[in-house]
Request: fold
Amino acid sequence: MSEAIFRGISGRLHRFSVHRPHEQFAVAPAVYCFARPGPAGRGWTPLFLSRTGNLAKRLESHEQWPEAQLLGATHILIHQHDERDAREYVEADLAQALKPAMNGPFFEAELEEEVAETGVRLIWAA
Reply:
């Protein structure tokens, strides 16, 4: 099994194990990433980053995997961590640093559009 290490916006390093999408995943909490090989086949380019309390169930038929494949995703990278706060931290730290193509800009654009239409802005939700 190979691994990938990414540096977050905080400067911290986060280690992920590299898996094929057809593998059997653990019933465990984790941060996961859909990724394609990096430029010249070196490293990994994250396309989508998220977290879950049950990796096996979440990846069973993930609704965004087909889109990630269209963007070149070939592997799923896994960072297992039991504590929810730690998973939230890792996800936020890496999302800000790596800016995966399927994560941020579309959501931010949708929020800005919603604010313009309704004058209401979501600040935080759980």
Notes: The first strand starts at residue 3 and ends at 7. The two ends are 34 Å apart (CA to CA). The beta strands are 3-7, 13-19, 30-37, 44-52, 75-80. The chain is about 35% helix and 30% strand.
